[in-house]
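Exercise: predict the fold of this chain.
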Amino acid sequence: MLRNLWDPARAALGMPTRRKSRSRTFPIILERQGVVENVNIDPAEFGVPLTFTHFEAPAHLSGRAYNSGIVLSGETTHFLPDKKHFENAIYAKFKPEKATYSFSYKPTNFARFLAKIAYGFVIAQDGLGTIKTPYVLDAILGRKDDIGRRVGCHADGKIHSSVKDDFDIKLSYYR
């Protein structure tokens, strides 16, 4: 579900996979003396960026007009082990004038991943029998393209729900 987004970080950390093979490299773009070169680096040696997406608030809670999918409103990138190591290791080996990276992913897949986690929390806390209508299940399974109706962020700081059954999952980063 998140291969392009987090697979290099999983490889760097030696995390297991169910797939038979996984790319153990991360592509970067180097510029040296006006020449652009694509290079694959080993995330275990250089580190790797780890991106977390930000979404608009869930349409069901915010009341905004909604059609399908999910609206990406930004992202936060952390580096494993840290940004200085990533930059210094690339410079030490390749001595580029400029180094960038680019990858593509589907924000809906990340949103489905978050919904799957939240759904699991509900089942763990209250049991499967407490879910009368599993509204988000079709979106998690990819049968409907309405993940933005139930999943999102509240970057505006507003709490959009007062119902005890809604989960607020927070990601914190500590140094």
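Check your answer against the key: Helices lie at 3-12, 43-46, 59-62, 83-94, 107-126, 137-140, 147-150.
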